[in-house]
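From the methods appendix. Each design record in this collection lists the tokenized structure first, followed by the designed amino acid sequence. Records were kept in a plain field format so they could be parsed without special tools. The example shown here is representative of the layout used throughout.

RECORD:
FOLD TOKENS (230 positions):
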């Protein structure tokens, strides 16, 4: 039993590391993920790496192509539109439940998540999103839904958030669109949630996500985003 637990812990650690590397833009869309190289990097067997990649494939962060191996997904703008609408529908429902069910502890954790995001540098010297800010940003949005008490909805929105994050990294300058004030958008969402105004919070959240879609759709292709799935 102990050996099994150790193997599961190792697999989860590698899966988490691969996910973080993926979301930080370490690989380009369509890159092949080499088992041997990753095994050497993590100093473990290819079996453990394969298991981690297979689980990430279940989250759609990795593409498994029979007889060819594992690849970084190549998302299309059409797919991003679908992902955005799914996020809007599900998260509007989720945040409504969270505002109804959330207690003072939820409010405190939400304010803390927002503070952490605001205090974390968002761009590096190459104008790319920092991994630290990306993680803090996702944590803030996750905390908005944390009190909804619907695990399957939380799991789905987490997957959709990861897929959107891939675009945020690949688009680079598009998500730094000069027409937006992301800090003000997040503050407005926080204020509405703390005021327990579910309707306004849901509307602001949808506008926030659609604003990202608009920025990437407008500028993303110019900075090298894929326009069709592989």
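DESIGN:
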């Amino acid at each position: 039993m102990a050996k099994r637990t150790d193997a599961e812990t190792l697999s989860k650690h590698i899966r988490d590391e691969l996910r973080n590397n993926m979301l930080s833009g370490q690989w380009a869309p369509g890159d092949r993920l080499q088992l041997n190289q990753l095994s050497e990097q993590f100093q473990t067997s290819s079996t453990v790496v394969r298991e981690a990649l297979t689980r990430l494939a279940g989250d759609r962060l990795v593409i498994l192509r029979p007889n060819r191996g594992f690849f970084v997904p190549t998302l299309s703008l059409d797919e991003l539109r679908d992902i955005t609408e799914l996020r809007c529908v599900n998260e509007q429902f989720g945040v409504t439940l969270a505002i109804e069910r959330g207690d003072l502890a939820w409010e405190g954790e939400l304010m803390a998540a927002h503070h952490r995001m605001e205090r974390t540098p968002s761009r590096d010297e190459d104008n790319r999103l920092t991994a630290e800010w990306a993680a803090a940003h996702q944590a803030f949005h996750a905390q908005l839904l944390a009190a909804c008490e619907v695990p399957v909805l939380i799991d789905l929105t987490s997957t959709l958030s990861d897929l959107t994050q891939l675009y945020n990294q690949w688009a680079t300058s598009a998500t730094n669109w000069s027409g937006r004030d992301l800090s003000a958008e997040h503050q407005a969402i926080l204020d509405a949630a703390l005021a327990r105004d579910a309707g306004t919070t849901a509307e602001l959240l949808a506008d926030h996500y659609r604003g990202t879609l608009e920025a990437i759709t407008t500028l993303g292709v110019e900075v090298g985003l894929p326009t069709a799935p592989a």
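APPENDIX NOTE: DSSP finds nine helices and three strands in the chain.
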